[in-house]
């Protein structure tokens, strides 16, 4: 049973799109975070050790930015592997959402920002079809993360 309405074809094309960007998980994850910090500087406030970094170059070199970029991509990869199994998908999304809501106190709008930057990067590197194949996945991820926030009374 699936709460998510992905056809098998959609799952396959989403995975194909994701694989292209996940091959360079650390570099692409870093690019996404650096863009977020640069275009939305308020997001830096959640990361004590990134606060003092102003130049994109400096951020790109940071082991902590790189490490977190890779972590974000690894989490999304786990979700992408379970698009056809909502129980397993939610088993990843729910604890992640809870942690960001209750421990890290991250504004949920930042999930949408990250997803939009990932889509933008996909389009730049691999074209509009790649982006289109993955759009539904990002909507699903953000919807479920937002639901977790509602449940914990954000």
Please, could you describe this protein's structure?
This protein is mainly alpha-helical. The protein has one domain (8-152): Globins (Globin-like). The protein has seven helices and no strands. The chain has helices at residues 8-22, 25-39, 56-61, 63-80, 86-103, 109-126, 128-151. α2 (25-39) crosses α4 (63-80), α4 (63-80) packs antiparallel against α5 and α6 packs antiparallel against α7 (128-151). The chain is globular. The two termini are 28 Å apart.
SSE inventory with pairings:
Blueprint: H1 8-22, H2 25-39, H3 56-61, H4 63-80, H5 86-103, H6 109-126, H7 128-151
Which structural class best describes the helix and strand composition?
Answer: mainly alpha
State which percent range the strand residues make up.
under 5%
Q: For the CA atoms, what is the radius of gyration?
A: 15 Å
Low-confidence stretches: none
Under CATH, the topology is which? Globin-like
CATH class: Mainly Alpha
Q: Could you give the order of the helices and strands?
A: HHHHHHH
Q: Based on Cα principal axes, name the global outline.
A: globular
Number of self-contained structural domains = 1
> End-to-end distance, in Å?
28 Å
Overall helicity: over 70%
Summarize the entry for a quick read.
The protein has 154 residues and is mainly alpha-helical. The protein has helices spanning 8-22, 25-39, 56-61, 63-80, 86-103, 109-126, 128-151. The relative contact order is 0.17.
Key words describing this protein structure:
single chain, 154 residues, mainly alpha, 7 helices, 0% strand, globular, iron, Globin-like_sf, Myoglobin, iron ion binding, heme binding
């Amino acid at each position: 049973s699936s709460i998510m309405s992905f056809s098998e074809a959609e799952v396959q094309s989403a995975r194909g799109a994701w694989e292209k960007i996940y091959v360079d998980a650390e570099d692409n994850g870093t690019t996404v975070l650096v863009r977020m910090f640069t275009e939305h500087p308020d997001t830096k406030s959640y990361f004590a050790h990134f606060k003092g970094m102003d130049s994109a170059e400096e951020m790109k070199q940071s082991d902590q930015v790189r490490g977190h970029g890779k972590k974000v991509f690894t989490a999304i990869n786990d979700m992408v592997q379970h698009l056809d199994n909502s129980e397993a998908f939610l088993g990843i999304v729910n604890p992640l959402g809870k942690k960001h809501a209750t421990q890290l106190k991250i504004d949920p709008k930042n999930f949408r920002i990250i997803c939009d930057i990932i889509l933008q990067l996909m389009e730049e590197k691999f074209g509009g079809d790649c982006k289109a194949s993955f759009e539904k996945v990002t909507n699903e991820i953000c919807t479920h993360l937002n639901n977790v926030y509602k449940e914990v009374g954000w």
